[in-house]
Every structure is written in structure tokens, then in C-alpha cells.
């Protein structure tokens, strides 16, 4: 009887790994436009249970790891996100409905785009600069006769330095707005699954540069986030030191 028990346990030991492996598998899928039945490329596919995610190719095809019961979410700009449940399908067929609501445009309505803010700052600056134009100083009549050349030079020099400082400030503000408009909490949370304080730490530590954000495609930006998340997972509590503020070392000419 004791021998029989060991034999049963032995076969169970051999069987369990195969059961475990069989629970998770990689399946292929394809994304189609529900209205036209045409293939939809560059869609974002995410396993909501394992947080694994990927983009499909230009032909609408993709592969993703799944287990029975997993929820697969597919999203793409100008389409309504679709969720399907894996129940053993050989191929995941995803049909997306078009929508007239384009998310980036809705965001622009609620908040000015970085370009609009930048143009407004330039207009405000030009108005302020005209108030201190040289003609205002020389239009004082006889009372301006005592104004020295040194005083005028100092006034103009200070105005020029202030102008340079302001334009640099406006440019930096514009660049930060561009980064914020693309490197959003929603995007990072959707790709990494992070929330709350850890999401804030990740976004602070791995905030991309303006140059990268301005030229990166949605796919490249998502790939960047995924690669940095792999590093972040090694030490989630690590916080980088904040960047030192820029120091203006201009001197009078």
C-alpha cells in the first residue's frame, strides 16, 4: 500500500509541470476594422491579467501570451477600445469600432496645446518689449536732456538681458509642455501597470528629453517606457537626484 502511494505521487509530480505549462500559451491574433473589415495596424494590445503588452504589425497581426480567462484589451487612436476574453480560441479575432471622438483633440479643447501656449507667450512678450522701446525714452522733450549715455546704455543692456532670459524661459516652458502632452500618466500607467506613488517616481526618474519626445513615434515612446520599466523593476525605491537649476552667468558687455 505504501509503495502504491509513492507511485501515485511520482506520476503526479511528472504530470503537474505539464499542466502548468499548458495553462499559459502564445496565441496569434489579428485586428480588423469592424465597419470595413480591413486590417488595422499599430494597435496596442494588452493582457489585462499579466500586464504583457505589444503592438501589432502593419498587417494587423500580433502574438501574445495568454491563459484561459485572461482579458485582452486592444486600443488605437480613433477607435473604441475592445476587450475580449480568452476561452481557448486558436486565433484572437479583434474587431474595432471607429469613433468620431479623437482623444488628442479632446485634450486640446480642455487645455491649450504647447504650440498655442508658446505663441501666446511670444505675443505677450512682444507687447511688453514695445512698451520699453528706445523711442519712448527720447520722447520726453527737454526733461531728458540730462540723461547720460551710460544710463541709456545700461538701460538698453538690461532690457536685452531680460529679453534673452525671458525667451529662454518661454522655450523651456514650451519644451516641458511638449513632454507632458505625450509622456502622460495614463500612457505610462497603461504600459507599466504602475499607479500612485510608484508611478510618480517612475515618471520623475525616467522623464524623456524634449528632443526624443518631439521625434519619437507612439511605438518608439512605448518601447522606451517598457525598456525603462525593466530597469525600474530592479530597484523600485530608487529615486534619482533632481536636476540642478540652470544658472545664468551673463555679464555686461
Task: Characterize the structure shown.
The protein has 253 residues and is of the alpha+beta class. It folds into two domains: 2-96, Sandwich (Immunoglobulin-like); 106-234, no CATH class. It contains nine helices and seven strands. The protein has helices at residues 2-23, 103-110, 114-131, 134-137, 149-182, 185-192, 196-205, 210-215, 218-234, and strands at 24-33, 44-47, 53-55, 61-67, 71-75, 82-85, 91-96. The strands form two sheets. A four-stranded antiparallel β-sheet has the order 3-2-5-6, with no helix packed on it. Strands 4-1-7 form a three-stranded mixed β-sheet. Strand 5 (71-75) and strand 6 form a beta hairpin. The longest helix is centred in the middle third of the chain and has 34 residues, at 149-182. It is elongated and about 75 Å long.
